[in-house]
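Homework help board

Subject: predicted structure for assignment chain

Our instructor gave us this sequence and asked us to write out the predicted structure in token form, then describe one feature. I got the tokens but I'm not sure how to describe them. Can anyone check?
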Amino acid sequence: MIALLRKELRALFPLALLIFGFVGALILGDLFTEFPDAQRLCARCWIDNSRSSMVVFILLFGIITGSGLLTGESARGTLGFLDALPVSRSRIFFAKMIAASLVLAMLPILGWVDDAILGLLSLQSTDAVFPWNFIGLEFLLEMVAIGYVLALAAAFSMTRQWFALVVGVVFWIFLWARARGIGWIGLFDPNELLSPGIDGASVRIPWRHLAAHLSVGIAALFLAWLGFLAMGDRTQHAFDKLSRNRFVRLLHFLRLGIVPVVWFAALNQCDNHSAPDPKAARPAAESAFASAETKRYEFLFRESQRANAQALIAEADAVHDTVTRFLRAKATPSRIVVDLASPVVEHAAGQANWTKIRIPLGQGVPIARLKSLLAHETTHVYIEQLSDGAMGRFFASTQFFHEALATFVQERFFGSETDRTALRRAGAAATARGKVSFETLASNQTLGASRDPFLVYPLGEVFCRALVRSYGKRAPSKILKALARKNAPSSLSGAPLWRDAMQSCGYNLDRVIGAYNGELALAMKEEADFIAQIPVLTAHVELEGDQILIRTQHASKAPGEMLCLVRINTGLSEEQQSVYADKEGVFRVPRARSSGSVFRYLLGWKIEGMEWPIFEPWSETTL
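My token output:
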């Protein structure tokens, strides 16, 4: 047996080098982009960011290995030589499987070593104990996933030239079942297997997923063993005889065209892949973290935040029920996860990814503000539910309504008069600098090319208010459901998409647009004094050495801090960056950051008491 293992390991040595080089390159890449002592091991971060990569590596290398591990001997004509040796087929089979598992084990071993070394180097005195239990359990779960994928690939390899088609069909069926909400199919998903629950310093083993993977893996291993035993001249003769059948020959000819179609259909299903159990998405395995549940939410927070969190937790279900009553939405089947400990993206007060909410819980934030943010992000969750994901699929045309409805609910039920005044002023001041048509608002690309993309909040809220005043408070939820109707066109975008949805509800988009324009005109009239206090910002752009200088100009007293965003087209992508003024009030951008001849910039004011800055339209000049 030892001799057989050595033979198989020598045969798999190139694969071992490939895995070592591939994973080593990724580790070196991390070391070159981050300091070794700045890569803290966070269980939650690993689950959110690294888990999917590990699953992809296991699938990739597992399928590559298993597809030719057993049938390769027959294809190379060396099976007869092995049969002449004084060893059984079964011993050869298990030697191959053990050798392949040992080579693939390099993936979790290298990952474990990297996580342990860098995690220990980055450990700080204020951190909780190092999560050895988490990385130990992840190592074991990854080994189970490797055995599972390898056994399946070996079993499917018995189909020989039909391997790619069979695997594609199985993969498509799996994703199709997930997209249709068949919950038990997730028990066989390696991505869910590698997502144990985190509760303080303890780690919950996903026993059901573990049992499902082991059961299927053992069954696949048994089928692969039977197939390997059956290999030989008789089996090959039977395949050759079958291949001479006209129908089989036709299928063999069509196979080359069917395979890419099946894989394309499978990959297309990835967009509908259901999310993992939100209860598994908990903070890092550190005693500094805690959780609390209400009827509608599961809150995750740091122990140091407990006192501040309790006030929001006590009011949370009432906030949820207010949102669902207005939207006429049924409560989600599972609790909505609210992460109070993690940061959100810049310029965002809260964040929702349609399955989970993040709200930063800072010191001294009033409970009224926290309730309004919770209402805003909860509305996002139910927008996706009511539209059956259509708002996400057409996001380039629907983002404004996502933010419009969430902001409308937030301000109508939980906002103060000060908040509503600031929102009205933001919309009025933006309109005074150039009308933003509904066609522009309903296209992220058009809006972002001409104006501040964050106008979807104040102007979107005006549109939603105009919709409710035109057709009643049931109108938003009816339109969301209309976007999800079965016969809805799938190729529309922008204003035509909204016109179609409104017509299906018996609404007239032009009437709502008229009300939208009327609301903005009224706001400009009411806030004329405020608008007059905000001078128009212009600038003179010039080159000075290796820098681009943006010298701003305005006619009256500055109402606040000047802001500047620049859009840099590198030829491969376009980036939007913030620039800060020097002591002379000049914005400077390195010339090397803008390789094109056209330079674009956005100037604005950050005014005290206003949540959103007031920007001018985008300007551009030739360098």
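Reply (TA_rk): Your tokens look well-formed. For the description, you could write something like this. The chain has four domains: 2-280, 288-386, 388-532, 534-622. That's the kind of observation they're looking for.
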